[in-house]
Design brief:
phosphoprotein, ATP-binding, NDK-like_dom_sf, globular, binds magnesium ion, 4-stranded antiparallel β-sheet, binds 2'-deoxyadenosine-5'-diphosphate, single chain, cytoplasm, 4 strands, nucleotide metabolism
C-alpha cells in the first residue's frame, strides 16, 4: 500500500493544529503507521529541503522548520501521496481552496502549517530521512473493509 510523509510544521504545532490535521486524514480513511514529535536538526532540515537550496528563501525555510518541534507522520492508503497533497491545498495559503488544510488554517506561504511528499520518489526519500523501519507499525484495521 502506498505511503507518504506528512509533517505538521512548527506553526501548526504552536497553533494546536496537530489533532485537527490528524483527524482529517483519519476521517478520510487513511491509516497512520508512524508518528513522532521532534525537533529537526539543521542538517536534516537542509537535506529534507535540498531541492530548494538555491532558492532565495532557503535560509528562512530552514530557520523556520527548525524553530520548534514538528509532528512527523507516515500515512498509508490508496493514492495517499496525491490525495494528501490535495487535502493540504496550494503551497501559498492565499491560493489554497477553502476546505483544504492550508486554505482553512494558513495565511502566508512561509507559515503554511503542513508538509507533504509530492511524488513516490520524494515519499520514499522523506520517510527514510525521518523514520527508521522499526518506527513504522505495519498493521491491519478492520475498518479498512469499509473504506476499500
Ligand atoms: P510544498 O510545501 O507545497 O511542497 P515547495 O516544495 O515548493 O512547496 O516549497 C517548500 C516550502 O518552502 C513551502 O511549503 C513554503 C516555502 N516556500 C515555497 N515557496 C516560497 C516562497 N516563494 N517564499 C517563501 N517561502 C516559500
Ligand atoms: Mg515540496
Amino acid at each position: 500500500m502506498e505511503k507518504t510523509y506528512l509533517m505538521v510544521k512548527p506553526d501548526g504545532v504552536q497553533r494546536n493544529l496537530i489533532g485537527e490535521v490528524v483527524a482529517r486524514f483519519e476521517k478520510k480513511g487513511f491509516q497512520l503507521v508512524g508518528a513522532k514529535l521532534m525537533n529537526i536538526p539543521r542538517e536534516l532540515a537542509e537535506e529534507h529541503y535540498g531541492e530548494h537550496k538555491e532558492r532565495p528563501f532557503f535560509g528562512e525555510l530552514v530557520d523556520f522548520i527548525t524553530s520548534g518541534p514538528v509532528f512527523a507522520m507516515v500515512w498509508q492508503g490508496e493514492n495517499v501521496i496525491s490525495t494528501a497533497r490535495q487535502m493540504m491545498g496550494a503551497t501559498n495559503p492565499k491560493d489554497a481552496a477553502p476546505g483544504t488544510i492550508r486554505g482553512d488554517f494558513g495565511v502566508t506561504v512561509g507559515k503554511n502549517v503542513i508538509h507533504g511528499s509530492d511524488s513516490p520518489e520524494s515519499a520514499e526519500r522523506e520517510i527514510g530521512l525521518f523514520f527508521k523501519q522499526e518506527e513504522l507499525a505495519e498493521y491491519s484495521k478492520l475498518i479498512n473493509e469499509w473504506v476499500y
